[in-house]
Amino acid sequence: MKNAVGRAVAHRLFWPLVMLVVLLAINVVAVPGFLSITVNNEGHLFGSVIDILRNGAPTLMIAVGMTLVIATRGIDLSVGSLCAIAGAMACSIILGSPTPNAVGTVTVAVLVALALALVLGLWNGFLVSVLGIQPIIATLILMTAGRGIAMLITEGQILTVQSDPFKFLGSGFIVGIPVATIVAAVILALVALLTRRTALGLLIESVGINPEASRQAGVRARGLLFTVYALSAVLAAIAGLILTSNQTAADANNTGLFIELDAILAVVIGGTSLNGGRYSLTGTLVGALVIQTLVTTVYTVGIPPIATMVFKAAVVTAVCLLQSPTTAAALARWRTRSASRAASPRPGEAVVSR
Amino acid sequence: MTTMSVPASRLGRAWARTVDVFTSPKSGPVLVTAVLFLLMFTAGGVRYRGFFSAATILNLLVSYSYLIVLAVGMSFVIISGGIDLSVGAVLALSTIIAAKLLQLGWNPILVMVLILVATSTLGLLVGLMIHVFEVQPFIATLAAMFLARGLCYIIAKESISITDPVFAWMAKTRIVLGYRMSVTPSVIIALVVLAIAVWVLQYTRFGRTTYAIGGGEQSGMLMGLPTSRTKVLVYVVSGFCSGLAGILYSFYTLSGYALTGVGTELDAIAAVVIGGTLLTGGYGFVLGSALGVLVLGLIQTIITFEGTLSSWWTKIFIGALLLVFIILQKVLTSRRT
User: Fold this and answer.
1) What CATH number is given for A2-342 in this structure?
2) What mean pLDDT do residues B305-328 have?
3) Collapsing DSSP states into helix, strand and coil, what is residue A261?
4) Which of A258, A289, A336, B218 sits at a 20 to 30 Å CA gap from B259?
5) Interface probe, candidates A129, A137, A315, chain B, greatest B C-beta count within 10 A
């Protein structure tokens, strides 16, 4: 029994899940019907939980790409700017076409935006893998220049679009479920399948754990790095399109602002180390949900919006401190002591050694 | 080395030494930055009337004294192998504390001391979080950024103007240096901070330990250096510098505002990188970071002089320049091996 508890506490998703449950519990106490999901007369699902799943979708997508980048011991700071670039590109194409409401126009706009993001992602990959620039700097370049590029596309304006097919992307429903949620779920499932059912995930982890050793073992790090940065950029672009569609406007300055920080937080809360190596997509999902639930909690509990960031800082700090090896060691010591005090016949078992 | 066909000649030796200095990972990048700065300055002087003058440089110092102080703090952190994302938010926090307390009629000197103590304490907490709990610097300082920015909103959402006579005096006073040239007291403060930082990093035990941590924490510890203390202290230094930068910024704008300095941490990091400090730590000069600030300021000035360029070109230029510097540093320093 003690052993099972010990193993649960030692699991890397234990504290993030506790945090998620606590946040949900706070919400349920504040608003009794919080967890209820209703179907409205159009057949769409409604409820706070659905809102969390829909609004958290862009962060989740970016966090999925970020997880793989971080697993290779990298980081991608440019995702926020890529959101803005993709949104700006798509909106300017839709605005420039004579038929903004045609599905064809929107498809072209989306594809061009994704292609542009792919090119920029390959550029990040080139800087990191071929030129050997530190990822944080390599992507800082596009993070800084990217907002400028987005403004170049929008010519400094906020582009407002009236296009139903484009709007569908951010606020539509398929079989009652928000499109954004479905897209995020499909992306998560595809990436999980692709990296966990093939050797790809293992190779990515090996590059992150020891680049030199994996090179000597014959892993082609260069191609892998290109892939993860390109994937991260494309996922950021999809998130950017959803964000833009939600606001029905492309704002080069504010679309996806600080989303890279939320995504990195989601990855770290999910237990993937910024030092690269082992990664957990499930953890990233939990992390993204924690962050979105946090934002929702601020509204339901009635914490003044001005205190949102302090609240966020508190939760992030709490999760980080609870996950820290120092805390784990202290907890293990405490459990050993209480176990031996209870004169358990097998005190050694309660010790969790990791 | 790619020396001359006449190896014995004095010229050849001098050339070899120059190549050596420029390609060393220690001094090379910062020299490249200096050369590029001079080139940009000369090019601007050729292109625009009234550009090539001491006044241009002095104006840069006046406008960016706060960023120099910020970059100094960031240099300590980056040389030790860490990063501090909280500096922009802490800068905003200290402008808003200053404005709020002065509005309540506090003594300005007391306010400044209080700000420096508060921001240093925040730095201490971040340092402890990083050292004791082994939280990665990126995440710990990110949390500090959220905290500081959040506190700004709680203290005051709107911009508060500062009418205190001491602050107003600091904003208006010009120290005349000669014919039509003058600087603000903030410039003097920034230069003093810079000088102290140079001295601390080059000539004190704390400074050398900072380099040692960046070069390899394990080795530093095995050599018996006080790595734990130093690792925490660099964040205190950065917190202190952010607080001071905030005070200088409130001298400059005579107001406190919660949205001040969004993204300033990136300017500071960019300045440090352009100044030749490696983000992996262990190498770098704090003077280079100050030069990096001047380069960033010069880009802004050139774009202002050009007149027809839209403001978003600034971002693209800074990004492009960052790229050029990093590739140059990479190419130059890799020729050695």
Assistant:
1) 1.10.3470
2) 79
3) helix
4) A289
5) A137
pLDDT in the model for residue B25: 66
pLDDT of residue A347: 46
pLDDT at site B334: 67
- φ, ψ (nearest 5 deg) of residue A345: -65, -25
The structure's pTM equals 0.84
Q: pLDDT band for position A351 (50/70/90)?
A: very low
| Long-range contacts of residues B98-103, Cβ cutoff 8 Å, at least 24 apart | B98/B162, B98/B167, B98/B246, B98/B247, B98/B250, B98/B256, B99/B156, B99/B160, B99/B161, B99/B162, B99/B250, B99/B255, B99/B256, B99/B257, B100/B155, B100/B156, B100/B160, B100/B256, B102/B162, B102/B163, B102/B164, B102/B167, B103/B160, B103/B162
Please tell me which residue of chain A has the smallest CA distance to B147: A310
| pLDDT number for residue A69 | 96
- For residue A354, pLDDT over 90 is answered with no
Query: Residue A298 phi/psi, 5° resolution?
Result: -55, -40
**In this complex, do A324 and B322 lie within 8 Å of one another by their Cβ atoms?**
no
Query: What average pLDDT does range B120-138 have in this prediction?
Result: 92
Residue B333 pLDDT > 80, yes or no? no
Any A CB within 8 A of B47 CB: no
Q: How far apart are the CA of B132 and the nearest CA of chain A, in angstroms?
A: 7
Of B154, B315, B327, the CB nearest to A131: B327
**Whether residue B258 has pLDDT greater than 90:** no
- For residue A354, give every residue at least 6 positions away whose Cβ sits within 8 Å of its Cβ, in sequence order, or none: A10, A328
- Render B22-77 in DSSP notation, one character per residue: HHSTTTHHHHHHHHHHHHHHHHHHHHSTT-SSHHHHHHHHHHHHHHHHHHHHHHHH
Cβ within 8 Å, pair A320-B129: yes
Q: What's the CA gap between B303 and B74, in Å, rounded? A: 26
